[in-house]
Amino acid sequence: MFVMRSTVCLLVYLLVAVWTPQTKAGARTPFFDLTQYNDWPQFEDYVKGVAHDNPSFVQLKTIGRSREGRPLLGVRIGKPAPAGRRKIAVWLDGGNHAREWPAFHVAVYFIEKLVNGYLVDDKITKYVNTLDIYVFPVLNPDGFVYSRTSTRATIRQWRKNRAPENCTGTGPFSSDLCCEGVDLNRNYDIGFSHNNYPFNNPCSDEFQGPRPFSEPESRAVRDFVMSSEIYGRLYALVSMHTHGQLWILPYNYHKRTYPQDFKDLETLANRAADRVFAYRETKYRVGTAADMLGTATGGATDWIKKNTPTKYVYVLELPPDMKTWFAFQVKPHWLIPIGKETWLGIEVIFDQVIEETKNFQPTSEPSSNGTVDSRSPRFRQL
């Protein structure tokens, strides 16, 4: 009888071990289905949940609110720094264009990778212990919500935020047209001009807005990257968009215009793109959008590179390539493969950041002249 009871107990123990999720050190993430496209409430619940469930190394960040009052949510993933020290920071976001749903989901894939891999995967553990990793999946929640309300192309392919209508729009045969929304990635104060066509037309997908930083979403990003929390320690930033398979460097407000450390950015981008290609032969073109496609003023990454000490600043236009027209929303079964291959490129950037900054301590000294192009990165050597 004793042997029989012992055998039953052993079987129960084994069943519990097999069917209980392994959450080493308590790390876990809420369920988020990356085999389908999710709506805004699922993103909001997920981001809040992952911070709530992992308080020892994940912190919820709300950097502002949208035009319609939705929170601009993200997480900071990183073990707290020792007393008296500041950690180097990196930033990943899913972009600010409403229709570019894959980028939002790939950002969630990155959170999954970092949180579930902590204390399980040595490389992930090193990243979390060494860096503060900020991830903001959706920086245009209003536009995203609107794009999910209909299958009509004019709604599903919405790009801008939901700013109130502006009645100075023009069309081929009319004027004083009323159109809604501002392209948040044309709203930053770099290359901004009221003479920029079509960026000055409210009825354009790329309307820059009535003035720089007219939108609460762009102001929130500006204010956060300039805040004492992150200014002076943000060393790399990657903003994801779709589509085109482009690894975009600054600057994009004018052709053949580059930061002084452009070669460093280009070298790292090529290495990261090569690593992505080695996975399943997804080929990225590397360069500025201005040189590859045409100028684009008012861009977030251009402004951040010009006005903060952040060294490595990139836009990734995720797959598919530009042979496929208007493919902003790939079939959802591609979300995880795109996430996996893109992560390999992100690892190259993280590794470079850690290598370059191992003997540096971040500072929080403000810019004296409003631009740091000539002195990036601004870090104090130990």
TrEMBL record:
Its cofactor is Zn(2+). It comes from Caenorhabditis nigoni. Residues 1-25 form the signal peptide. One of its GO terms (biological process) is proteolysis. This is Peptidase M14 domain-containing protein. GO terms for molecular function: metallocarboxypeptidase activity; zinc ion binding. Pfam families: Peptidase_M14. The keyword Ribonucleoprotein does not apply. PANTHER family: PEPTIDASE M14 CARBOXYPEPTIDASE A DOMAIN-CONTAINING PROTEIN, PROTEASE FAMILY M14 CARBOXYPEPTIDASE A,B. Keywords: Signal.
